[in-house]
Amino acid sequence: MSAPHTGQFCALLLRRQLLLAMRRPIEMGNPLLFFTMVIVLFPLGLGPAPDKLAIFAPGVLWITALLSNLLTSDAVFRSDFDDGSLEQLVLAPQPLFLSALAYILAHWLTTGLLLALVSPIFALMLNLPVSALGTLIVSLLLGTAVLSLLGGIGAALTVGLKRGGVLISLLILPLYLPVLIFGTAAVQAAVTGTPSGPYLAILGAMLSLAIALAPLAIAAGLRISIDA
Amino acid sequence: MWTFFHKLGSPPWLYAIAGAILRWLVPITLVALVGGMVWGLLLTSPDFRQGNSYRIIYIHVPAAVVALAGYYVMAIAGAISLIWRMKMADVVMKAAAPVGAALTFIALLTGAIWGKPTWGTWWVWDARITSMLILLFLYLGVVALYEAFDNKEAAGKACAVLSLVGMVNIPIIYKSVDWWYSLHQPASIKFSGESTIDPSMLYPLLLMIAAFYALFTCCLLMNMRAELLQRESRTQWVKKIAGKEGRR
After folding, report:
1. pTM for this structure?
2. Which of B13, B39, B100, B219 could be joined to B7 by an S-S link, Cβ 3.0–4.6 Å?
3. Can you tell me the ipTM of this complex?
4. In B, what residues contact A, Cβ < 8 A?
5. Which domain does B106 fall in, by range?
6. What is the percentage of chain B residues whose pLDDT exceeds 70?
7. Which residues of A touch B177 (CB under 8 A)?
8. Which three-class secondary structure string do you get for A57-114?
9. B89 domain-assigned
10. Does the distance separating the beta carbons of B169 and A178 come in below 8 Å?
């Protein structure tokens, strides 16, 4: 049997990751449940006045998306590192950064994409105007993809460590900030009726940069963690 | 020239060269620091609006400038150790992180102390302050990641990757925070007065910046020497030095 082409290989990897996620639907639902719980905390903590909630809604939704992404990032490579299949992946002839990209894509499809799709429900609960919903979904789609890529860097660097859980948040939260700023700004612009296109364009630019550079850092991180 | 460069790659030589540099750099640093402080804190005239409280810039500005430069030293050393596998670059990177973190902290602390009498508040979510805070987190992230690894060679590489990722991000973070603040900026606070600084205040400030660069270099070299001794603690040359120090 000949080795599969790189594209084919990545598609297989992606299919495997998605299949693994599908087999554990509860685990896939956990970030969404977490998202819901944290959203509930805000009205309880800030007070339920609808007009006040509407002001905070863009920030609340984005911070919550960021946290639930952070929680799941830690697990991207963990189980494959533990059972040794990651080592095989590093040894495989296919370029590691493309395989890493397949992992990240699977992670984004099972967390960020789902989150973006269900976010309108919570946005309405927080009294966000309906006119801003489209922008919210698009900004979350673009932004969570960047978050997944950055989170992958932290995950790759800490996967070999026993107590990587807290460390990963210290490593990658500072890197998340630009996404938070522009994501929130896009939604806020949509709420106030100003064009949100420029912010979404900047998020898109960040995504292109992250797609180009993050897989290289992830691949380097994985090699280091395997060697350690 | 190349022999000197190659010597830098060998731990005992680097240890000796760093020691030789320190022998004359430490006195120069002390003289510059004391001179700059006396000049800046005692001999310059008070600012006509801020009175004496402005004098903290002689600590604050140099610390902030060198803290930013220190990150680039760390990241470039990390890149060198990743690309050319030079172990000694790894030592430089590891030694730079705590010094940079300390300087960032000093800059933040003196800024807060200055902000209380001048702005009436310890902390403002200003673009520069926020990005300095993030810089502190990036430094601490590198220190924490290094400590988390048991295998110190892997730790060095992981930190090099992290500091490079941080270097790509620093301009983005700075720009985005800058932009974020300028959108929400209350008009009461203006933060740009550097171009209008009087020469009598500027020269002691420049001296202090130079002194802080020298201080950074001193701390870096001392840290490097300590790190070298620790790494090479099983080798002959370290035992020799330890024996000499012990007999003294």
Report:
1. 0.85
2. B13
3. 0.82
4. 82, 134, 137-138, 140-141, 144-145, 148-151, 154-155, 157-158, 161-162, 164-166, 168-169, 172-173, 176-177, 179-180, 183
5. 11-185+211-247
6. 88
7. 177, 181
8. HHHHHHHHHHHHHHHHHCCCCHHHHHCCHHHHHHHCCCCHHHHHHHHHHHHHHHCHHH
9. yes
10. yes
